[in-house]
Design a protein that fits this description.
Shape: elongated
Distance between the termini: 45 Å
Largest sheet: 4 strands, antiparallel
Number of helices: 2
Order of helices and strands: HHEEEEEEEEEEE
Helix content: 40-55%
Amino acid sequence: MLKQIQENDQLKLENVRLQSELARLKIELDIVREGREKSETQTSILYVENRELRARIAELEAPSKETPILDKKKVHYEDEIDEISEIKALLKQAQVQHKKDEDDVEYSEISVRNEHSEYCSTWNKDISILDSHDNYITLKNNHYDKPRCIDDFLFVRVVDGVDTVPPTPVPLGIIIPPGEEYTIHANHAGGREIAGKSCIFHRIKTFGRGKVTEDRILDANGRITAKFMFYGFK
């Protein structure tokens, strides 16, 4: 009987873990879909803009092909030549940006399909640091209708430009509903004592293309005591 109870408990724990993993994968899939929709919209806009720019270039180049450029009309045509050069530069810039957007979406899709590939870590603005302290940090999901899992975010404490905190895991499987807040306390499972205080921050090697923001931490007198560097990964 005792063995059966233990097996049931193990199955319940496994069920909770699988549900958390499923929720995380659903969030990743939503992110990929959102990126694809954004890329498709940008593609349509760029296609229309490119078509209009090509038509304008053809319109400006037509007079110079049909009529010889005489010295007395040089000033008149220099303005049109400058405009053509500017339009061509804008067209090239739009094409480069479109190619970059396509690469970002493809990068995200590959990351979700293959867990061994480099994880896409494009900055995600939905999660922000609302409040922070040596013993806790409060995060907020700023998305208006989508939940976010904090498993995909990393933290490290930096004092005077030096990383002072060894790896410490944050709670796993925490999903923040849209518009809601969540506070991670220092006494969570896996917390470690650092200089007499429990550390709540997690740091592993950085990878992908993550971007960093800093949140300054002040003491009771308003003096800066440390900085928490927030590594956002999507």
